[in-house]
Q: What sequence folds into this?
């Protein structure tokens, strides 16, 4: 989302637009109370499409601009027929550099920059995470970006060897490609909801609770960061990060141009990083997911495709979590995940 009170096109201006508005925002500005809805309104959908266009454009540059700057061709169009360190290193190095530049800059700006004190009142959880949490999440997110690179490497090899079909020209179906670019976030959200819901307790006695097992062994790592920052977005167990980025297989299944699969990977990354920054402004303002980190047993997907509303797992407050599960143990009190300690400093990391 664009964040509280920001225009729908703001994702296209990140980070320049967000930094400039933060610098010029009046000190006396009063933030509204954070709120959440189960379904995106029209402005929210336009904002989501702007963010999707940003992800797709970055993917396009990664295919048609960045390799050429190093005298290379995108691996899917030939070089990936053989596994070679040169083209695989390019993908991994690009991913790690992007991870540290995007997450590192945004966490620095929100949590450590000279205007950190000015931004504090916009933080949805007024407490600050500890420096040890940020370091931990940065390390784990680095491994998640390697998992994303691994998926892209395998796809490039399968495309280059003809084991997967692909379209090499975007001009062949311009309207389809435009639609897929703008709806990128919308069509990947059901995949996210499915794998995310599966890794939380299913709260059933009719058969073994596999979700409870997956939560303890896999997903609980992500929830250790109950007070997240950008680096927390893909703070995921390798199993989870691989499943998360496997959303890239959706456009692959239809034989589309590789830019769509890479666009999904970019959108998964930036959506998670900016969506976990913890600020309603100048951050993403994703209070929907902040409630999930706080109360665990609700809001498993996103508002783009309202599956939580459809399946009855949407909650806009702590009280609504208890109503969802009707007497079953749920929410923060029923969760035994060991979480990172908050910062011992008042109003700062």
A:
């Amino acid at each position: 989302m664009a964040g509280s009170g920001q225009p729908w096109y703001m994702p296209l201006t990140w980070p320049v637009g967000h930094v400039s508005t933060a610098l010029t925002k009046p000190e006396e500005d009063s933030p509204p109370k954070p709120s959440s809805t189960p379904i995106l309104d029209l402005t929210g959908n336009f904002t989501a499409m702007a963010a999707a266009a940003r992800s797709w454009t970055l993917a396009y540059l990664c295919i048609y601009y960045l390799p050429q700057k190093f005298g290379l061709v995108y691996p899917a169009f030939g070089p990936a027929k053989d596994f070679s360190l040169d083209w695989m290193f390019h993908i991994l190095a690009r991913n790690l550099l992007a991870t540290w530049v995007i997450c590192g800059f945004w966490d620095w700006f929100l949590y450590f920059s000279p205007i950190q004190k000015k931004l504090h009142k916009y933080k949805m959880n007024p407490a600050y995470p500890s420096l040890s949490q940020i370091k931990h999440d940065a390390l784990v997110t680095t491994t998640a970006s390697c998992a994303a690179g691994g998926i892209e490497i395998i796809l490039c090899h399968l495309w280059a060897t003809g084991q997967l079909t692909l379209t090499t020209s975007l001009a062949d179906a311009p309207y389809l490609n435009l639609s897929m670019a703008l709806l990128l976030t919308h069509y990947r959200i059901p995949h996210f909801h499915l794998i995310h819901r599966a890794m939380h307790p299913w709260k059933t006695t009719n058969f073994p609770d596999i979700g409870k097992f997956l939560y303890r062994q896999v997903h609980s790592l992500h929830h250790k960061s109950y007070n997240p920052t950008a680096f927390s977005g893909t703070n995921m167990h390798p199993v989870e990060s691989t499943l998360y980025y496997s959303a890239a297989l959706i456009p692959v299944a239809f034989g589309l141009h590789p830019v769509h699969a890479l666009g999904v990977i970019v959108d998964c990354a930036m959506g998670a990083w900016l969506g976990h920054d913890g600020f309603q402004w100048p951050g993403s303002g994703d209070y929907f997911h902040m409630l999930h980190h706080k109360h665990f047993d609700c809001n498993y997907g996103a508002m783009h495709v309202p599956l939580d509303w459809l399946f009855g797992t949407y909650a806009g407050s702590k009280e609504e979590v208890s109503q969802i599960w009707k007497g079953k143990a749920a929410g923060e009190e029923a969760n035994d995940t060991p979480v990172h300690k908050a910062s011992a400093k008042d109003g700062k990391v």
In short: The chain has a mean pLDDT of 94. Residues 131-160 form the longest helix (30 residues). The CA atoms of residues 99 and 142 lie 7 Å apart. The two ends are 25 Å apart (CA to CA).
